C-alpha cells in the first residue's frame, strides 16, 4: 500500500481529486465507487472546481456508492442519496441514471457493477474502529453487497466488493483517525480491523494528513 502523508485536509482532498481526475482523463467512462462522510466533502469540492474549470467531464462517468441507510426516503437529508446530490451530483454533469446506490438486492448491485466493467477507482473513508463503508469489525473479508444492522438497517457493499476495484484510495484526516490508521498499516491483517485487508490490494493508496498519521 502506497502511503502519502500531507499537511492538512485540504492537501488530502486536492491529491485525491487529482487521482480521480487522472482516472477519468484516461478513461472518460470510468466507474467510480464513492464514499460519503465529512472526509469526502472537500474532495467533492475539488472535483466541482475541476468541472467548473472545464478540466473534467462527468458525462460518461458511472458511480456506485458504497452504502446507504435502509428505509429512509432519498430526499431525507440524512440519506446518502441526498448527500451525493447536494455535494457532487447536482453540481457536475453526471447523468443521474449513471449513479447507483446499494439496496436490499445485493446480488443485483454486484451484477450491475460487473456489467459496467467493474470499479476503476474506489474512494474510501475509514471509521474510528477501522470500518470501511458499513463493514464493521468482524465483517468477512469475502463479504458482498448486503443489508446489515449496525444497529440501524443499512445497505453496504462488502469488503470483497471493495477489494475487486482496480484502484483504491483511502482517505483519513484528523487525530480521531490516528489509531485506526496506525492499526491499518502496522497491525495484523484481521477481520477485526476491516481496513487492514487493503494492504493486500495491488493498487491501494492511503492519503492521510499529519494528524491522522500521528502514530505511523
Ligand atoms: C460512515 C460511512 C463510511 C465513512 C465513515 C467515515 O460510517 N458509512 O462510508 O467512510 O463513516 O466518515 P467521516 O468521513 O465523516 O469520518
Question: What does this protein structure show overall?
Answer:
- The protein is of the alpha/beta class.
- It is 29% helix and 19% strand.
- It contains 6 helices and 10 strands; from the N terminus they run βαβαββαβαβββαβαβ.
- The strands form 2 sheets. Strands 1-10-9-6-2-3-5 form a 7-stranded parallel sheet, covered by helices on one side. The protein has a 3-stranded antiparallel sheet with strand order 4-8-7, with no helix packed on it.
- Helix 1 (9-26) crosses helix 2.
- The mean pLDDT is 98.
- The site of 2-amino-2-deoxy-6-O-phosphono-alpha-D-glucopyranose has 11 residues, from loops.
Which runs of at least 5 residues are low in confidence (pLDDT < 50)? none
**Heteromolecules bound:** 2-amino-2-deoxy-6-O-phosphono-alpha-D-glucopyranose
Q: Radius of gyration, Cα only, in angstroms? A: 16 Å
Assess the beta-strand content as a share of residues: 15-25%
C-alpha end-to-end distance: 14 Å
* Mean pLDDT over the residues: 98
Draw up the topology in text.
Blueprint: E1 2-6, H1 9-26, E2 31-34, H2 41-52, E3 62-65, E4 67-69, H3 80-87, E5 99-100, H4 106-115, E6 121-124, E7 146-149, E8 153-156, H5 159-163, E9 167-172, H6 178-186, E10 204-209
Parallel strand pairs: 1-10, 2-3, 2-6, 3-5, 6-9, 9-10
Antiparallel strand pairs: 4-8, 7-8
Residues 35-39, 66-67, 125, 127, 133-134 line the site of 2-amino-2-deoxy-6-O-phosphono-alpha-D-glucopyranose.
Amino acid at each position: 500500500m502506497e502511503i502519502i502523508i500531507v499537511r492538512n485536509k485540504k492537501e488530502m482532498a486536492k491529491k485525491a481529486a487529482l487521482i480521480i481526475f487522472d482516472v477519468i482523463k484516461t478513461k472518460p467512462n470510468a466507474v467510480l465507487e464513492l464514499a460519503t462522510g465529512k472526509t469526502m466533502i472537500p474532495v467533492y469540492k475539488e472535483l466541482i472546481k475541476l468541472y467548473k474549470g472545464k478540466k473534467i467531464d462527468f458525462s460518461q462517468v458511472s458511480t456506485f456508492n458504497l452504502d446507504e441507510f435502509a428505509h429512509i426516503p432519498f430526499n431525507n437529508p440524512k440519506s446518502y442519496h441526498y448527500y451525493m446530490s447536494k455535494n457532487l451530483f447536482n453540481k457536475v454533469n453526471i447523468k443521474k441514471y449513471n449513479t447507483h446506490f446499494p439496496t436490499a438486492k445485493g446480488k443485483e448491485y454486484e451484477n450491475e457493477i460487473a456489467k459496467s466493467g467493474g470499479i476503476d477507482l474506489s474512494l474510501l473513508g475509514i471509521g474510528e474502529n477501522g470500518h470501511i463503508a458499513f463493514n464493521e469489525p468482524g465483517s468477512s473479508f469475502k463479504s458482498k453487497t448486503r443489508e446489515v444492522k449496525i444497529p440501524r438497517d443499512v445497505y453496504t457493499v462488502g469488503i470483497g466488493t471493495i477489494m475487486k476495484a482496480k484502484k483504491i484510495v483511502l482517505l483519513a484526516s484528523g487525530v480521531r483517525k490516528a489509531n485506526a490508521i496506525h492499526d491499518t498499516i502496522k497491525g495484523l491483517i484481521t477481520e477485526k480491523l476491516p481496513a487492514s485487508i487493503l494492504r493486500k490490494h495491488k493498487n491501494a493508496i492511503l492519503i492521510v494528513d499529519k494528524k491522522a498519521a500521528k502514530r505511523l
